[in-house]
Amino acid sequence: MAGDLQVVRHFPFYIGRAADNDLCLDVAGIWDYHFMLEFKPDEGFTLQTFDEAFTAVNDAPQTAARLRNGDLISFGSAKIQFWLAAPRQRGLRVRELFVWALLAGVTGAQIALIGALIH
After folding, report:
1. Which CATH class for the 13-81 domain?
2. Measured between alpha carbons, how far is 47 from 25 in angstroms, rounded to an integer?
3. Which of 15, 41, 60, 99 is the most buried (most CB within 10 A)?
4. Are 40 and 65 in contact (CB under 8 A)?
C-alpha cells in the first residue's frame, strides 16, 4: 500500500487490523484496534492509542498526541504521514476583469483629458 492516499472525511477515524476499522491494515505488529484520529475544535487533530498498542509520532512513543501537518505516525510495521489537504483557491477571474476594466477606464479618461487640453 506504499504511496496510497487515504482521505478522511469523518471523525473519529479508526485504524487497525479489524475489518470494521475505517482504515484496515493487515500487516505485522498492528492490533485489531490500534489507534484513532479525532478532530476537536479546541485542540485540533489528535491521536489516541488503544490499550497497550505501540504508536510513535515522529519517532517519539505516544499514547496520545496532538498532530501537526507532516507528522510521521509509526505503528507496527506501518508508517503513515499525516497531511492536511491543500486549500482550494477561489477563482480570480472577476477581480481580474474588474482591474482590467478599471485600467481601461483610467486610460480612456486620460486620453480624453489630454484631447480636451490640446484643443
Report:
1. mainly beta
2. 17
3. 15
4. no
Kindly tell me the burial class for residue 88, based on how many C-beta atoms sit within 10 Å of its own C-beta (0-12, 13-18, 19 or more). Answer: exposed
pLDDT tens, residue order, the chain (119 aa) = 666 787 888 999 999 999 999 999 988 999 999 999 999 999 999 999 998 899 999 999 999 999 999 999 999 999 999 988 877 778 889 999 999 999 999 999 999 999 999 98
Name the residue with cell 485540533: 44
Kindly report the backbone phi and psi dihedral angles of residue 8, in degrees, each rounded to the nearest multiple of 5, phi listed first: -95, 120
Q: How far apart are CA 21 and CA 83, in angstroms?
A: 20
User: CA separation (Å) from 80 to 8, 21, 56?
Assistant: 13, 16, 11
